[in-house]
Amino acid sequence: MKLDGKVALVTGSSKGLGRAIVLRLAEQGANVVINYSRDESAALAVREAAGAHGVKALVHAADVSHVDGITSLYDAAVAEFGKIDIVVANAGMEKVNVPVTDVTEEDFDLLFRVNTKGPYFVLREAARRISDGGRIVAISSNTTTVPQLGVGLYGTSKVATGYLVKVLALELGPRGVTVNTVVPGPIDGAGIFTDPANDEYKRSLVQMIPIGRLGTTEDVAGVTAFLASDDAALITGQQLVCDGGMH
Asked: What EC number(s) are associated with this protein in UniProt (predicted)?
């Protein structure tokens, strides 16, 4: 129970990677704040699963691509638990297999709102409200480090958060707060890989991974839980890549 008594807020945590992270943190003893924007039933199912570990779980609906949604989420967490010790900025949107020539202004505005503006202000609020000695983790993508066909817009929208993490690590270090990025490769069973129509694309990616498989949500949840723990107290401003050697 490495996180016993801690309070962890995870954005975009009703399904997929966010769900796995919430449940891993709950398994290690953290009370959790589950965030969703549309699928309430999925969020309630995560709350039930987290509660089975004997922790408290709060569900809060908020669109974290908008600042008012972000502040309402933090307000609810502090009202319920009195503090926030761990923040995982996970919410995001994928758009792949789109050549740069086919990207529209609407595509650009949407992805940058969700993948750049949203995490920026999630991390801003974390910096304002997190407890001294706290842990901030941003979930990124190895499309920011591995150029691939069709990910020009998606990868570009994820780059800025990695830079912000490095700046925040400097600003928050005197308070004992660590700030890091987890950089997953393609994740089986999450995002676009929940759709069988993308199986051929998935097989093509496996050929690029030395370890011979896509990652799982559990792989990334384990890395995130490590960075959220006291074991990672001296790790800050770093990008921890979890992609089977694809980078």
From this structure: 1.1.1.-
